[in-house]
Amino acid sequence: MTNKVNITTDGGADVARVSNALSLTIKSWRKSKKLSLDELSRRAGISKGMLVEVEKGTANPSIAILCKLAAALGLSVAELVNVTRAPAAFLIDSDDMPVLWRGEQGGSAQLLAGTRGPDMIELWRWTMFPGEIFTSAGHPEGTAELLHVEQGELTLKVADTELCVVQGASAVARTDAAHQYANDGNHMLIFTMCVAERHG
Fold first, then answer.
1. Do residues 52 and 16 share a domain?
2. Mean pLDDT of all residues belonging to the chain
């Protein structure tokens, strides 16, 4: 099993595209808010060295780090990786949906769409092969996730609660606590997830 959470997509071009989007967006928003590297790293709870690498476009940050940076800047993860636009309605091409996690067996977490701002909603599609696991320390207070299993069986742990979400079933979870998703079964797991996060 793996708890690897770095962005490790198959194609180098895909990684470079996400890294470049992060670099430009974070640097631009940090300067617009008149935040030093030290101050943003303090607010986000990440090292200054990691922030410097992200702004240079050479880092491979985890989903957890992206969430911390987004919260510190008052943005959504979708805005950080440019999966959101200003119009009232818009399309997102499949090529513009970044994979932000890869499991050791080839599983993935793809950000399909997301709204703007700190009070955000995101739509994800996860695939996990048997034995793969994703662990998170928790999101900002009040964050909720809606999960629906399309195929396989999801083992969902949130704080001291463990649920087995079978094919066709759904779950609701407060994920401001430590949580994890795992495929403890023998078949591929596919689930969709909606994340709602409110600030202030």
1. yes
2. 86
Q: Of all helices (H) and strands (E), which one includes residue 21?
A: helix 12-32
Provide the residue type at 179 as one letter. Answer: H
What domain range is 30 assigned to?
12-80
Q: How much of the chain, in percent, has pLDDT values that exceed 90? A: 49
* pLDDT score at 145: 97
Domain-located, residue 4: no
Beta bridge partners of 134: 181
Q: How far apart are the first and last CA of the chain?
A: 37
What global pTM score does this model have? 0.74
Based on the domain organization, do 116 and 155 belong to the same domain?
A: yes
- 116-147: per-residue pLDDT in tens? 876 789 999 999 999 999 999 888 888 999 99
- The answer to whether 95 touches 11, Cβ cutoff 8 Å, is no
Number of domains the chain is built from: 2
Q: What is the CATH number of the domain that holds 115?
A: 2.60.120.10
pLDDT recorded at residue 7: 39
| Nearest to 94, CA basis, from 112, 79, 80 | 112
At position 77, the amino acid (one-letter code) is V
Structure tokens at 7: 């962005």
pLDDT higher than 70, residue 33? yes
> Counting Cβ atoms within 10 Å, is residue 11 exposed (0-12), middle (13-18) or buried (19+)?
exposed
